[in-house]
Specification:
499 residues, binds alpha-L-arabinofuranose, Glyco_hydro_b, 26% strand
């Protein structure tokens, strides 16, 4: 099979926002407790932060982390997580039917974020709480001092304001499962008023309103339009969430799910621009795809099955090579929408549907899906190029004709480096790729990396065999007369670095 693309330095989509390589730490299962935080672990620092997880987070290239939920935030009292640890209350977490010790809270998260070298993205509770508590949290976190809440932060050991810039106005407020779920009109008004008071405390913050929790919600489309009718002028971004899984062992269909993500983004862009048109506004709202991943949801019994444990093993999905290739297609899709998607968070970071797995008291390791994320975060830099792609297709319901090649390229004008990220969705045949490179200067291949099925797409990394699946170098790829020539192995994620 053969596929081609044509790239030109002048044909760009947008700049790669570094915040596209975000992740998510929720108080859920073992993401926080025994994930990023485990006092007494042999690799824990004096604050109880696991250094092994911090090292992997930095290696993965995560730039931003959303916290503290997720469904969890819709019942959360942020005050429970500040002050002397011995005074913090144990609480029922109604979202996940777990018990939250609150030993890890705002200060611990920001200490972790500093060490992980990531920007914090903070969510406020708009489920069971409202504008006052949200404004209080902004005052506590960002006001320099001289007021009750900012002085409390200082008394709790943080004299300097945290300066948290990016804030989510609640989480999945359209979902009937959400604590304090709302209609679009109720949420839109609440988001507008909450944004107003939070901005009165700190005018420099950026605000994300909740879009639909998935494209298949019955209210999708109407939800976005109605919410933005109320809060368009007050917010900067609108959220999208999407999780995908394989159905009925239909791997070809699973590999096509990024087409759903692609359509979802296009539809949300159309909807937010429709609201702009109605308002005669030139503002072009950005999108925050702040939960995305592969999640084998059918294997999850749901929160109803939980029994008020402290750190239950919740949705600790083990990912294989096929899932990693699928994750690669989501990264490609996000980058191809760099003109409108400026924030994205893979959900979640540790243990809970996560690229990093840990054992309590034991090791931490990279799941297969760690690798495409780390490659994209490290090598996709500068401008996203608008590729003209010609690829064979295959039929997969409900997607129609699915291109075998999925690809995106970036060009860093400062270094001249070009990175091509490419997936061969073909299950059995290699894909001969030819890429015409125009206006990009003389280029040579630096390296071709692949994560490939190599005959067994079900291979995984485990505690016993943490490096069973690793990216490998591919020989033979080259640039000849301004043309990239490479062979993409069957069912593979590829990074072609040119410089
Ligand atoms: O990431 C797991 C959960 O999925 C989050 O808590 C929620 O926002 C979404 O439904």
């Amino acid at each position: 099979m053969q596929a081609t693309f044509t790239a030109h330095a002048a044909f760009t989509i947008g700049t790669v926002d570094r915040r596209l390589f975000g992740s998510f730490v929720e108080h859920m299962g073992r993401c926080v407790h025994t994930g990023v935080f485990e006092p007494g672990h042999p690799r824990a620092d004096e604050a109880g932060l696991r250094e092994d997880v911090l090292e992997l987070t930095r290696e993965m290239g995560v730039t931003l982390v959303r916290y503290p939920g997720g469904n969890f935030v819709s019942g959360y009292r942020w005050e429970d997580g500040v002050g002397p640890v011995e005074d913090r209350p144990r609480r029922l977490d109604l979202a996940w039917r777990s018990v939250e010790s609150n030993a890890f809270g705002l200060h611990e998260f920001l200490g972790w974020a500093r060490k992980a070298q990531v920007e914090p993205m903070m969510a406020v509770n708009l489920g069971t709480r409202g504008p006052q508590e949200a404004a209080d949290l902004v005052e506590y976190a960002n006001h320099p001092g001289g007021t009750r809440l900012s002085d409390l932060r200082r008394a709790h050991g943080s004299p300097d304001p945290f300066g948290i810039r990016l804030w989510c106005l609640g989480n999945e407020m359209d979902g009937p499962w959400q604590l304090g779920a709302k209609t679009a009109d109720e949420y839109g008004r609440l988001a507008a008023e909450t944004a107003k008071v939070m901005r009165l405390v700190d005018p420099t913050i950026e605000l994300v309103a909740c879009g639909s929790s998935m494209r298949s919600m019955a209210t999708f489309g109407g939800w976005e339009a109605t919410v933005l009718d109320h809060c368009f002028d007050q917010v900067d971004l609108l959220s999208l969430h999407a999780y995908y899984e394989e159905h009925d062992e239909d791997l070809a269909g699973f590999l096509a799910t990024s087409l759903d993500m692609d359509a979802f983004i296009d539809e949300v862009v159309a909807t937010v621009d429709h609201v702009a048109a109605k308002k005669r506004s030139r503002k072009r709202l950005k999108l925050s795809f702040d939960e995305w991943n592969v999640w084998f949801q059918r294997a999850f019994a749901g929160p109803e099955a939980q029994t008020w444990e402290d750190e239950p093993r919740l949705i600790e999905d083990t990912y294989d090579v096929a899932a990693a290739v699928v994750v690669g297609t989501y990264l490609i899709t996000l980058l191809r929408h760099a003109d409108r998607v400026s924030v994205a968070c893979q959900a979640q970071l540790a243990n809970v549907i996560a690229p990093i797995r840990t054992e309590p008291g034991g090791s931490a390791w990279r799941q297969t899906i760690f690798h495409p994320f780390a490659h994209a975060a490290r090598f996709a830099r500068g401008e996203v190029l608008r590729l003209a792609v010609a690829s064979p297709t295959y039929a997969a319901e409900p997607y129609g004709d699915v291109p075998v090649l999925d690809a995106v390229a970036t060009h860093d004008p400062e270094t001249g480096d070009v990175t091509v990220l490419a997936v061969n969705r073909g299950l059995t045949e290699p894909l001969e790729l030819t890429g015409a490179l125009h206006g990009l200067g003389p280029l040579e291949l630096v390296e071709h990396l692949t994560l490939a099925a190599d005959g067994d797409p079900r291979r995984t990394n485990t505690e016993e065999h943490p490096e069973a699946v690793l990216p490998r170098r591919v020989d033979g790829s080259r640039v000849v007369d301004g043309e990239l020539r490479a062979t993409l192995p069957p069912l593979s994620w590829n990074v072609l670095r040119l410089g």
